[in-house]
Specification:
The complex is a heterodimer of chains A (643) and B (549). Chain A is 37% helix and 14% strand. With 643 residues, chain A is an alpha+beta fold. In chain A, strand 1 and strand 2 form a beta hairpin. Chain B is globular and about 75 Å long. Classes of the chains: A alpha+beta (643), B alpha+beta (549).
């Protein structure tokens, strides 16, 4: 709290990002949040911004109506305040600068966040995901793969988890030798096992081969992986980097596998760009879509120039290659990039998701993230800028993975148990630092931080709100008919994910959300089924006993959590539930209302749909003035007079 | 002329039909006067019936004695026919070419088509101006129905009955007509019940370089304003284009002569540019080899999405003037038969919930497109695969449908119809067994005696069996004005038309069915709950007298 000099400022204007609209309200600064409360009493909206979500604060030069403060968030929210007094603005600005750069982990929200659970509940939350059980589900350990305790004390590789699965034939000396030949000691280990063909997906980092170095243990290691699969004589080695990058690494004593030294490998570059390119790409994308009065040409050219969708497609192409090699050819695949924690995580996770329907369920998706991202050491703290950041380490690698999954949900609407709200919510919390899961860079660091004792698990929280994240048209039988997804990679299938990158820009979204509508109907169906049952029981009682029991309202479940507020993906429909509730409260015998109350006409509009918000052009018609201009050209939001 | 003269080879066996995402079919190819038919020998389920009128262009290829004809259709489909025998192939190709480019309208299929269904409700009677006027009369008495164009002499492209301000007599109308391009004087397009504001449409005024004026025209449009009220003239052309039009005798309303009106210029492109845009877009969509960057750059270069945005923005602006500003609007471009109609009809969809029902939408197309004289026959003569230089072809109507689809996407619960209806209208505007879209204006249709000699599209669509396909399960009527977003991020490529033949929609269709299932199940459950409650209530009332002694 010592950083907060001005906890409250009144008469602050919040400007809309894409139109000339603004609202006035009060700004509150707390230890964890920046809160804006609109003064308008009838529809007072509140905006809560977690300090951890703030990527940058900018104080613009003083204007006549006050001092503008521009806040950009990692969840793609952008708010523009105008604070009447410059002094207040400066106070808020400098407090935020300090607050959004925590210097130690202890300052992160997760360590103060308390969802009013007892220790047991917290522990249970952390026990939800069990990776040992996950490997068991895949069929590991088995006659060819075993659990090794070589990294129990994090001695061989600091950034790997304690429990690792390797081929039976890989002895400890081989493992240790191989790890010395791999960047950061990240030697080849199993991440997914395709039981049907006994083919394995393994991951590692680049070999320290330089121009000519070789390592017998590493060669043995790959051979052991190859031998563990009797279905194929060869294994694929996928270097997910562009060839040029891999070549450049050789000069630094790193590089890629020489096919001459390894027997029976098929080496393949897949050309996904590095973290710096991805960071720049997203920045360009956000600049383009953040432009006011964006023309279609600038949008499409900007989308192209940002390269964002090209990168998304590259990741998808790589994952498809992986899935095909495993499921069609039955070959094992070893995936790596440079350090094996960014592109490798993307490709392994997405590839597994294509191959295994389990990962397309809510629980399975959590397991997948826990396995390929968290446990194998994707550097969330660095990539998501959690703590005293090095800007060169920040990169939207995980966001890209979520987007690839979203692109798949667009092609296979029935394949996923979850909807895009789930993906967006995970993205929200990867940056929120509200839960312990994504803190730190590796399992070891998480243990040091005692996260399981001191923080809560996101997965438990998400599961408690599961209803909100369900895909209403999900079909478990789809998984049976499509165990392996084969998406089309035609360029036109890759679309801009508006609901992610514009999640807070209401004017951009469809005004009526099909997802929300159908989800509500599904909830309603569940309740109606209960009501039908209750009524039937009651009718039976009537026919059996003559004693007229006073009718009771049927038991009803009211445990559904509210729809998340931050996900404004359409107008809140008149909830069937509410209508239903009214019905139930009616005394039996009276005619139950059959339909939702008719919407009366008049001045109402579909929420979020107003003429001014969209800025088709503002009409500044001051008729009667003497000097009438010849014509009015209406620009987006700005009226310009021309003669 | 006999069709038989054009058909050199009526029948070839052993023809292979290739279509994307469908198995190859081997069968017999038959040519009739109006159809290309391929039926497989194994069973009769696999059949292709293609109207010659639907064929946009064909390509021939030969490998040895095996000939291949690639047929490119106006609905953007591309199919391949492998025909054994060089001579047969050449014959078939030249026959198709001849039959698909018949000049005479009266040889078109609608004049030969006999419906296999009973016409219950004659679609030719769907829109009766007199009845529409009765509705208007119930709201306001400031308008009258004029017969000045009874014989189509005042304005050849207008219908015979027109709604005009009550105080303007026919003589003034004739004078105003002589001051407007093609005689298209300002007429009522839409009356906004909520505030009594109106939308009028016309063609450009013929001011020429010397600034001609016409008192009657000024009087006519001023008569649509209430005392002290203002109005907006939305000129769909840029100011530069409008200035240039003066040199050719056209022009725009001078503010000095129309002091109560404000002019707004927008930039909706002319028809020949649109055709080029469509060709480029379809080319981009059909090229499967595109990398991400190339696809986006091709999509951009086609300019199609820009057109959608521009048209939609203009329509929203017109609607905003009427509903938010409380001002009347006059819309025109050059001829008043293309961009003008896009704007007036889209504005009505935004403003008027009736236009979002199936019947209302049909009436809108009938009133604002067919009767208003959009030259369908000229505009839809060729589609995206035309090789020749476009004459007056342009996807004006398709762009309108695309804009409707965009609004539908943003308000998925506000329309009674679904995307299929829009796609079906697109198909029928280009090639149809029905007479509805033949001809360029009412006068031509009367001359062709379409209503006696052909079947109306509406007669078919409005049959309950057909309607089912076009119903939107999410529809919940609302009386609100719906304001769509026109940000480029909110406007999507209409995949249902442009990628229709390039992707498999199986997964999407199944998901859609599941959604329909959920909705129907909900209705079923609600009915069940209600009926159970009634039963229970009945039992209770029967029981209770026994209790009271």
């Amino acid at each position: 709290m010592e950083h907060i000099r001005t906890p409250k400022v009144e008469q602050v204007k919040l400007l809309d990002r894409f139109s000339n609209k603004s609202v006035t309200g009060t700004l509150h600064l707390t230890a964890t949040h920046l809160i804006f409360v609109e003064s308008n009493s009838t529809s007072a909206q509140e905006i809560w911004i977690l300090h951890h979500h703030i990527a940058s604060v900018e104080k613009l030069s003083l204007k006549t109506n006050g001092c503008p403060l521009l806040i950009q968030c990692r969840n793609f929210r952008l708010v523009h305040f105008v604070i009447p007094r410059e002094r207040d603005c400066h106070d808020i600005y400098s407090s935020l600068l300090r607050l959004l750069r925590p210097v130690s982990y202890d300052e992160l929200y997760a360590f103060s966040y308390n969802p009013k659970q007892n220790d047991q509940q917290r522990e249970e939350g952390w026990q939800l995901i069990d990776l040992a059980a996950e490997f068991e589900r895949m069929g590991v350990p088995c006659d060819q793969w075993q659990l090794t305790d070589v990294n129990r004390e994090y001695k061989v590789c600091k950034t790997y988890p304690r429990d690792l699965y390797v081929p039976i034939m890989a002895s400890k000396p081989i493992i240790v030798g191989s790890s010395k030949f791999r960047s950061k000691g990240r030697f080849p280990v199993l991440t997914y096992f395709y039981q049907e063909k006994k083919a394995a997906v393994c991951r590692c980092s680049q070999p320290l081969s330089g121009f000519s170095a070789r390592c017998l243990e590493d060669e043995h290691m790959l051979q052991a992986i190859s031998k563990a699969n009797h279905n194929s004589r060869y294994i694929y080695v996928m270097d997910t980097r562009p060839k040029l990058n891999a070549l450049a690494n050789r000069a630094a004593g790193k590089g890629y596998e020489n096919e001459d030294n390894y027997s029976n490998i098929r080496f393949q570059f897949v050309g996904i760009e590095n973290i710096h390119v991805m960071r720049g790409s997203l920045q360009k994308l956000l600049e383009v879509v953040g432009t006011r009065s964006l023309s279609m040409t600038d949008y499409l050219v900007g989308l192209e120039n940002s390269g964002w969708l090209r990168h998304i497609k590259a990741i998808m192409d790589a994952a498809i290659f992986l899935a095909k090699a495993v499921t069609v050819e039955g070959a094992s695949v070893l995936v790596h990039c440079s350090d094996g924690w960014d592109r490798t995580a993307q490709v392994c996770a997405l590839g597994s998701l294509l191959m295994d329907p389990y990962y397309r369920t809510i629980k399975g998706f959590m397991v997948l993230i826990e396995k390929d991202w968290i446990s194998f050491g994707h550097k969330f703290a660095d990539r998501c800028d959690q703590l005293d950041p090095d800007p060169k380490e920040v990169s939207p690698i995980f966001t890209q993975f979520l987007e690839c999954v979203w692109q798949l949900t667009e092609q296979f609407p029935q394949a996923f148990e979850f909807s895009e709200w789930f993906l967006i919510q995970i993205h929200e919390h990867v940056h929120s630092c509200q839960f312990g899961n994504f803190l730190g860079n590796s399992q070891r660091q998480r243990e040091d931080l005692q996260l399981k004792e001191r923080t809560y698990s996101l997965w438990a929280h998400l599961l408690s709100e599961k209803q909100n994240y369900l895909n209403p048209v999900y079909s478990p039988s789809f998984a049976e008919s499509h165990p392996v997804l084969e998406p089309s990679t035609q360029a036109y299938h890759f679309k801009f994910w508006r609901n992610m990158y514009h999640q807070y820009d209401r004017s951009m979204h469809p005004r009526q959300s099909i997802l929300k509508h159908v989800l509500t109907l599904k909830d309603s169906n569940r309740e109606l089924e209960g009501t039908v049952q209750a009524l039937k029981t009651k009718l039976q009682k009537f026919s059996v006993s003559t004693s007229p029991l006073k009718p009771q309202t049927p038991p009803r479940e009211r445990s559904l959590p509210p729809r998340p507020q931050s996900l404004i993906l359409g107008a809140p429909l008149l909830s069937r539930k509410e209508v239903q509730q009214e019905e139930d409260e009616e005394v039996f015998g009276e005619e139950a209302m059959e339909d939702a109350p008719a919407i009366t006409g008049g001045e109402r509009t579909v929420e979020g749909s107003s003429a001014t918000e969209n800025g088709y052009g503002e009409l500044m018609g001051s008729f009667g003035s003497k000097n009438e201009p010849g014509a009015v050209t209406l620009e987006f939001g700005v009226a310009r007079m021309t003669c | 002329m006999e069709f038989a003269e054009l058909i050199k080879t009526p029948r070839v066996d052993g023809v292979d039909l290739h279509r994307p995402f469908m198995p190859t079919v081997e069968g017999t190819l038959c040519l009739t006067g109006h159809h290309l038919i391929l039926s497989s020998r194994q069973d009769n389920t696999e059949e292709l019936w293609l109207l010659h009128a639907n064929i946009d262009s064909i390509e021939k290829r030969f490998v040895g004695s095996l000939g291949t004809i690639i047929v490119k259709c106006k609905d953007l489909r591309v199919i391949q026919l492998d025909i054994p025998g060089m001579e047969e192939c050449l014959n078939i190709a030249s026959s198709i070419e001849a039959l698909s480019t018949l000049d005479s309208v009266s040889l078109m299929y609608p004049f030969f088509y006999r419906p296999l269904f009973e016409v219950i409700e004659d679609g030719w009677q769907l829109f009766v101006p007199e009845e529409a006027f009765k509705d208007l009369e119930s709201m306001t008495d400031e308008w009258r129905l004029s017969e000045v164009n009874k014989d189509f002499s005042v304005c050849p492209s207008y219908p015979s009955l027109l709604t005009v301000p009550k105080d303007i007599d026919d003589e003034s109308l004739c004078k105003a007509a002589s001051f407007r391009h093609g005689g298209r004087f300002p007429v009522l397009s839409y009356y906004h019940k909520k505030n009594g504001m109106v939308m009028m449409r016309a063609a450009q005024p013929l001011t020429g370089t010397n600034g001609r004026r016409c008192k009657e025209d000024e009087k006519l449009i001023n008569a649509t304003l209430c005392a002290g009220k203002r109005g907006y003239i939305i000129d769909t052309r840029t100011i530069a284009v409008a200035q240039q039009a003066k040199a050719r005798g056209g022009g725009f309303e001078q503010e000095a002569n129309y002091p109560q009106w404000r002019r707004i210029h927008k930039a909706i492109e002319r028809s020949n540019v649109l055709q080029d845009s469509l060709i480029k877009l379809v080319e981009a969509c059909n090229d499967q080899s595109h990398s991400m960057d190339r696809w986006l750059s091709k999509l951009e270069a086609s300019n199609w999405q820009s057109k959608v945005k521009e048209i939609l923005t203009t329509a929203c602006l017109a609607a905003q003037c009427i509903d938010r500003e409380g001002a009347s609007v006059l819309v025109h471009g050059t001829e008043g038969t293309d961009s003008t109609l896009q704007v007036t009809s889209l504005a009505q969809i935004i403003l008027d919930p009736a236009c979002r029902t199936i019947r209302g939408f049909e009436v809108l197309i009938e009133r604002e497109w067919l009767q208003a004289g959009h030259p369908f026959q000229q505009r839809c003569a060729q589609s995206a695969y035309s090789n020749g230089k476009p004459r007056s072809e342009a996807p004006v109507f398709l762009l309108f449908l695309d804009c409707v689809w965009q609004i539908l996407r943003q308000f998925p619960c506000s329309f009674q119809f679904n995307e299929n209806l829009l796609i079906m209208f697109f198909e029928h505007a280009y090639a149809s067994q029905f007479g509805t879209f033949l001809g360029n204006c009412v006068a031509e249709r009367v001359k062709l005696q379409l209503s006696q000699k052909t079947v109306s599209l509406w007669s078919w669509v409005n049959r309950p069996q057909e309607l089912e396909r076009f119903l939107n399960p999410l529809y919940e009527p609302n009386n609100l004005v719906i304001w769509p977003s026109v940000a480029p991020q909110s406007l999507l490529l209409w995949e249902g038309v442009f990628l229709r033949w390039n992707r498999s929609t199986k997964c999407l269709d199944e998901a859609c069915q599941e959604m329909v299932h959920i909705i129907e199940y909900n209705k079923e459950l609600q009915n069940k709950v209600n009926s159970l409650r009634r039963q229970l209530a009945q039992l209770e009332t029967e029981e209770s007298p026994l209790q009271t002694p």
